[in-house]
Every structure is written in structure tokens, then in C-alpha cells.
Amino acid sequence: DIQMTQSPSSVSASVGDRVTITCRASQGISSWLAWYQQKPGKAPKLLIYAASSLQSGVPSRFSGSGSGTDFTLTISSLQPEDFATYYCQQANSFPLFTFGPGTKVDIK
Amino acid sequence: QVQLQESGPGLVKPSQTLSLTCTVSGGSISSGGYYWSWIRQHPGKGLEWIGYIYYSGSTYYNPSLKSRVTISVDTSKNQFSLKLSSVTAADTAVYYCARAQVHYFDYWGQGTLVTVSS
Predict the structure, then answer these.
(1) pLDDT, tens digit (0-9, with 9 covering 90-100), for B68-102
(2) Measured distance CA(A49)–CA(B62) in Å, rounded
(3) How many CB atoms lie under 10 A from the CB of residue A3?
């Protein structure tokens, strides 16, 4: 099974900061990776798919990069509505999907 | 705009079967091209994919839950359902239904908390 790890597990940041979250796969997954944002009490929301493609309607301050085993999600200028938990998800082993443990972005 | 809504009991007794239904609106399950999935999240924890069904009835389950999971579809009602048998407290979680554009989950239900307790 492909295992996903994320770092850091949490990050404190201020509005306007640039935030970078890393996701690592236990084996190569090409570009089969998505990023989701989840706010408390809400369902996850798809932000990025295929490692770097922005989902329709998602602000351009979100970007994704990477391939193989190492991936990053970058928020170029953190906004108040971006405080949330972010999850990566691998789709290389379709139809078996696995998610990372999450990274919580909170207010410094 | 596609919308998904979970429904079912919020409390299930240990050893019984958890049953949830997801009603899809704004799009037809029968149109094909999408995989209709169940995902759960234990309290304060990460996300676990349970399984999916295609409109044709083809299914695939997470091997860790496969022996206890059944997902079915009712295209006439535009619904799909989850049954998880022999539940324990470890199955207490928020259960989400979601649509997968094959590899990625683009629409989600709001989630429903199911507690396993006597």
C-alpha cells in the first residue's frame, strides 16, 4: 500500500504570509496527487488535482507542484478564510485511494 | 450544481449493521463517468476511503474494510448506499459520500456522524 505523510503537522502563520505544505508518498505516484482544504465541521474541498492543476473556482493564490514522491502545496498570501486543515490524496493506486494525515494551518 | 446528501441513523448498536444513503441532485448517477464513493473521518482524525460504486453496479472496496462493506446503487432514485456490518466503537466516524472524477473527489456531501454505542 502507498502511504502518505505530510509536514508539518501544523503551522502557525499570519495573514499575508506565504505558506508551504509538503506531502510525501512512500513510492512514486507520478502526478496522481490532489490537495483538499477542510474547515471545522465541513466536508473537504478539492483545491488541486493532478499535482498542479487548479480546480475551477479555487483562488490562484493556491498552487501545487511536484511529481514522483514529493509534492508541495503553496498558499502565496494567506487569507483569513484559508485557516483550515489541508490533506493530500494519492490516486496512483486507483481504485485504492489514500489520504495524508493532514496539516493544520492556524493563526499565529 | 451537483449536490450530495447523506441520510441514515446517527446511532448504531455494536455488532449491528450501519446503513447510510446518499441522494444525488443536480446530476444523474446514470450518466456515467463518475465513481460514487464513501469516505469516513474518525473524530479529530484524517480521511479514510471506504469504497466506490459505478452506475453499472461495479464496486471496489478498501481491502481493510472489504469483508464488512457493501455499496449499492439505485439509479431510479439517484441514490447510492453504504452498509457496514458488525460495527464496533472503532467505526464511530463522520461518513461522507462523494463523487470522484475517476481519481479525485470533486463533490462531497456535508457528512453525517454515526456513533456506535449501546
Answers:
(1) 999 999 999 999 999 999 999 999 999 999 999 88
(2) 21
(3) 12
User: First-to-last CA distance in chain B?
Assistant: 39
Q: How many residues does chain B have?
A: 118
The answer to whether the Cβ–Cβ distance between A43 and B46 falls below 8 Å is no
> Which residues in A lie closer than 8 A to residue B99 (C-beta atoms)?
none
Reduced to 3 states, what is the DSSP secondary structure of residue B59? Answer: strand
Q: Which tens digit of pLDDT belongs to each residue from A67-77?
A: 999 999 999 99
Using CA atoms, how far residue A19 sits from A69, A81, A83, in Å, is: 20, 14, 11
B11 CB burial (10 A radius; 0-12, 13-18, 19+): exposed
Phi, psi of B54 (to 5 degrees): -100, 160
Residue A64 neighbours by CB under 8 Å, 6+ apart? A33, A35, A47, A48, A51, A52, A53, A54, A71, A72, A73, A74
Helix (H, G, I), strand (E, B) or coil at B61: strand
* B contacts of A49 (beta carbons < 8 Å): 101, 103-104
